[in-house]
Design brief:
Layout: H1 2-12, H2 21-46, H3 72-100, H4 104-129, H5 134-157, H6 160-163, H7 178-200, H8 207-230, H9 235-264, H10 274-312, H11 328-334, E1 365-371, E2 374-381, E3 384-389
Antiparallel strand pairs: 1-2, 2-3
Helix pairs in contact: 2-3, 2-5, 2-10, 3-4, 4-5, 5-7, 5-10, 7-8, 7-10, 8-9, 9-10
Length: 390
């Protein structure tokens, strides 16, 4: 069994890299702070505080002085401070990934994260300089979701499970495949986030967001049920599928509450009320988690598919002959053999004078072979075979 495990490990993880705990924990920390930044941005929009600090990149004419955190200023300026910190973390993460991770695509992913956070900062400044135009403000909110997903994926790709453990494999012959469903889920969910951003920034009515929510619910439920029914034995697929389903249910409930507080009850409110702010911010936060979880499910499923393809292309050998139906000992004795003399061995001693007794002794024939991903030991004795399978 250990030999088979080592073979599969070498075959499936030929490109494995050592687990870097510090790098992974830093990526997790960067993703966590990015999630706080999304919450801070939702607080700015929900409290109509986007122009509370009217200049950019300075705050009331200063690059370093903290203004009086009163009214909407506290939401906007804290949002800017967290954004600056995320930008600083992104620089460190990109440089660290480029130097410490040997995978070329990971290096480019770290650079991509840095480019996204720079573009995000520029869009954030343009929203202030052009007085919150709906198109730029919505793009600013939508790009934040992409950046969050990229940082989350960097945390996944640097984790111990991805770098060191042997990926579990499973085939999926159904159509559409789970990979197709996860990509479709990401697409409809991202469209839903864009529609929600345009509604919050007064660039679109509420009904496209509500109509598309039904499509999102159907596609995500289909994807999660397929993953749980087909890949229930694979932890890396089952866990994000369960999380995605739970977050989708929570998101639908939060969306209904946000619709009631903002559209049905609060459409003529002079200022944003607390229930409206809380429900909207929670709706945005859970939406970000839902998109990131769907992206994680997609890459985990793709890893299982790649492992299966690599295993299928590993060059399995087919035996040339079947097991003999006669006595196994006779069949083994007829096989070609080669004598290898042992250095210093004088040979068998000469028989003593007297009667010579000859006898032949043999042990039961033991066979070891792989049965799929499992192993078995067969004991051939007398007229029967005893198979012990792990």
């Amino acid at each position: 069994m250990p030999a088979l495990h080592n073979f599969l490990g070498a075959l499936l993880k030929a490109s494995a890299i050592p687990y870097n705990r510090a790098h992974h924990r830093f990526a997790v920390f960067a993703a966590s702070v990015t999630f706080l930044l999304i919450i801070a941005g939702a607080l700015v929009t929900s409290n109509d505080a986007g122009l509370s600090v009217p200049d950019w990149p300075t705050s009331f004419g200063s690059l370093y002085k903290i203004p009086h955190l009163v009214g909407g200023v506290k939401f906007e300026h804290i949002h800017r401070m967290i954004a600056q910190f995320v930008g600083f973390l992104s620089i460190i993460l990109a440089v660290w990934t480029w130097r410490a991770d040997p995978r070329r695509w990971m290096k480019y992913l770290g650079v991509t994260a840095l480019g996204l956070v720079i573009a995000q900062g520029i869009l954030g400044g343009l929203t202030v300089l052009f007085y919150l135009p709906p198109a730029i403000s919505s793009a600013h909110a939508a790009l934040a979701q992409i950046f969050f997903c990229v940082v989350v994926l960097i945390a996944v790709f640097t984790g111990r499970t991805w770098t060191e453990e042997i990926p579990q494999i499973e085939s999926d012959e159904r159509r559409p495949s789970l990979v197709t469903l996860t990509l479709l889920s990401i697409l409809v969910l991202y469209v839903q986030l864009i529609l929600g951003a345009m509604f919050r920034h007064h660039g679109l009515s509420w009904w496209p967001h509500v109509v598309n929510a039904a499509i999102v619910a159907i596609v995500l439920a289909w994807t999660s049920i397929r993953a749980l029914s087909r890949y229930s034995a694979i932890d890396s697929v089952r866990r994000p599928a369960i999380t995605m389903l739970a977050l989708m249910i929570a998101q639908l409930c939060l969306g209904f509450v946000a619709f009631l507080t903002r559209v049905a009850w609060g459409h003529d409110a002079v200022q944003p009320e607390l229930p409206m702010v809380v429900s909207t911010v929670a709706h945005v936060a859970v939406g970000a988690l839902l998109l990131a979880t769907t992206a994680v499910l997609a890459v985990q499923e793709w890893q299982a598919i790649k492992a299966l393809r690599r295993l299928q292309a590993g060059g399995w050998e087919r035996p040339g002959a079947k097991l003999p139906a006669e006595d196994m000992r006779k069949a083994i004795r007829r096989l070609p053999a080669q004598e290898v003399p042992i250095f210093g061995y004088p040979g068998p001693p000469a028989p003593p004078d007297g009667k010579v007794v000859k006898a032949r002794y043999s042990r039961p024939c033991l066979m070891h072979g792989a049965i799929g991903p499992s192993c078995a030991v067969a004991l051939w004795e007398n007229d029967g075979v005893t198979v012990v399978r792990r």
